[in-house]
Amino acid sequence: MTDGTIAIGRLIRSSTAGFVFACRVPEPEVPLFGAFVKAPAQRAQSEVFGLIYDIAFTDDMLVRQVAAAPDLPESYIQDQRVNRQIPIEVSVLAVGYRSNGGSLNYGLPPQPPITLDRISQCDDAEVAEFTERFDYLQIVLNSPHAPADELIAASLRRAVDTCPPDERGRFLRNAGKELARLLSRDLARLENLLRRIRP
Amino acid sequence: MTTPSTLDDFFPRTPSATGHIRLGIVVGGSLSQGLDVKLDVGATPGNIIETMAVGRYVVIEGATGRKFFSIVTDIALDNTNPDLPKTPPDPDDSFASEIYGSVLSFGRLQVSPMLLVEKDENKPKPVKTVPAHFSKVFNATPEDVDTIFGAEDELHWHIGEPLDMQGVKVNLDLQKFVERSSGVFGKSGTGKSFITRTILLGIIRARAAVNLIFDMHNDYGWEVIDEHKKRFRGLRQLFSDGRVQVITLDPDTSRHRGSKVDHVLQIGLNQIEPEDVDMLSGILGLSEVQVGALYYISRKLKQRNKNWIAELLDENSTEINEIEDSEMVQKGTLRAIQRKFELFRRFGFLTPSASDEAVDYVFNALNRGTNIVLEFGVYGNTLAAYVLVANFLTRRIHRKYVEQKNKAAGKGGDEPLPLVITIEEAHKFLDPEIAQHTIFGNIARELRKYNVTLLIVDQRPSGIDEEVMSQIGTRVTCLLDNEADIKAVFSGVSGAGQLREVLARLDTQQQALILGHAVPMPVVVKTRDYDEALYAAVGFADEAAAREKRKKDKAALYGEG
Lengths: 199, 561
Prior knowledge:
The complex is a heterodimer of chains A (199) and B (561). Chain A is an alpha+beta fold. Chain A is built from 7 helices and 7 strands.
């Protein structure tokens, strides 16, 4: 994992349910679908934790024109990628927050982060702490925008990497049990999800 | 890094300091139908349910700290989603199986609350309510069960131990046991007579009552040998102080078996009354008309000072011919009775005439506190002989008891000692057709009014009159699998229907369900071994030890050498 303290973008719009931040060029490692990120809120009194559920490259007029041009020089392509007119938009689902450096709360934050706040990736310790409990799975399942099953599978795969190897099986079983509780009425969906997270 | 779940800190699954292991929580049910308990998952799914057993005790800790002692009556598999049985996980997928088994499916117990122990008290009371929703359910520890069944003493006779609880004694309250009629039921070969013998040993040892045992198969008085050629001592052998006497109808067989016999019983034909034969009508195939004729013949011949049975058995009896001629009894009826009475010729214990000596002997012995085992010898194989003698003696002894009891009530004598009459093949005596007007039906119904109660040993409780069954105080039941028999055993016991699964799952030997008056709550016991330890418990010392004691006594009396 990369050092999570590096800021990976700045916020462009937000609500209590989630936020969208912008970044320039994606590195191979950031941002990733299902990654845990955090943003300051309430003038740095609180931190909002979220899961990346969408990464979008939006076109602009120039790209549309250039894309159709024949024989594009490589330098031109690189220039278009690095100096984009419209940045990459990364959507995040808010799943928890921490106020005044206290304990973690699962659920929606009292206030969303504000425009141009710096978004950073959670480090391993933060991911491990956040996934000590699986209360966030319910928020993901209930989200109207995020592809819930994919997001859960991706986030658990990310979280299990932070566990010591001999704990990984137990971690996934506990996650599976929480999912079974939440999806006890929808066995087909549960079966599919369990297949995705099986160690 | 993920820290381990703290759930177990709040809900410990390991044995606590008191040995209690949490099994689950109460999720529903009622007092009449029993409670539903959702089992915990335990260390791995299924490990709690597979160690359960019907008939075992659990303790439910109510919301107010009261403890509800309950018995497991059924065990079931359940799930949170009715579609689960249609879409089960792949059994080879251990990951999915464990998750499904932990969350979506669970074990369910049906438990029947029996006794209630108030907080900070030790005295159990009958249960009149149920524990609150989500009360925790624990296994019952040996200490818990000990509290319920109390300590063993003179009148609390150790009869066995609860299932899977070695060292815990289930004690039968002998005083209560003899207070009302009791029953030992079970298919043949399930150990009825061993349990009966163990109970009788307790009664005799504590002198809780005096016993008259109609020993059909020579099981009680002297030694018996089981199918593995093992010898077991009888009552007469275990009490060498003369408090048990063996009376036989068949001295030859008793002698061949090596039994010590104290008396040979003979019954005079002149003593037999039509009422004694009436009960045989089913066995002999006497019709109502024929039974009616018996009363008439007996009355007629009595007027002439003749012995009615002897005359009936005499083919050339002028008296009978006269009755025939008078046409008061049809010829066919008379001849049919005579044919059916042929059986009596084979009964060696019947003599042409005898005094009331036999009955007096038995009654006086009982009155002195001497227990009587009446061995039938070869006649045990003839039901008619057994029914005839049992009915004959019981009617007369009961009559004497009634007399003595009435005298005692009028301050004219001592109370007769409580008497327990043990009968085997009881359904022959207590058949619904005849139980209404036989002496055994009366005894069972009148309870202890005249200090006489029954100990019924039977393999077909469904053949016993329902009214009689409902009056049975204590029921000791070995394995029964006939639906009607199981139903009969539970008749007249409220809420016992839930125990039927328990009864149907008993082992074929040495296990019994005891319920009723003499135990605080129904209990499945592994009955006590009938061995030297039991002999010692009733004060019997084997021959080697007895010889040693005699030697010591002699030395004490005359000095060494």
